[in-house]
Backbone:
């Protein structure tokens, strides 16, 4: 069984004063994925796990609010049928610092 585990690079950096997009996770041989987002500060916005089959057109798989206080969220996809995934932070207001990592299991 293959296993992937890495910290996600965020662009721009993890400062939550604007929209943030993570690097793309290639799910070619991954059938189970978890993404963990951890932040400090008091950001207001949404964390969105996006998926794509072509790496160009992205759609929301799961959306969770990030607001008011330091916290964390986890996103899980069982039985991945998508080719790519990435984490997106949709900024609304305030500020914080975001870090994220992922783990995937596959064949």
Residues:
């Amino acid at each position: 069984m293959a296993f992937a585990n890495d910290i996600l690079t965020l662009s721009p950096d993890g400062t939550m004063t604007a929209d943030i997009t993570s690097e793309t996770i290639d799910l070619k041989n991954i059938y189970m994925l978890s993404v963990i987002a951890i932040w400090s500060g008091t950001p207001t916005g949404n964390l969105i796990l996006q998926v794509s089959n072509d790496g160009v057109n992205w759609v929301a798989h799961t959306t969770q609010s990030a607001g008011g206080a330091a916290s964390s969220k986890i996103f899980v996809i069982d039985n991945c049928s998508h080719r790519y995934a990435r984490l997106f932070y949709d900024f609304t207001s305030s500020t914080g610092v975001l870090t994220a990592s992922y783990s995937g299991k596959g064949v």
Q: What stands out?
A: DSSP finds no helices and ten strands in the chain. The radius of gyration is 13 Å.
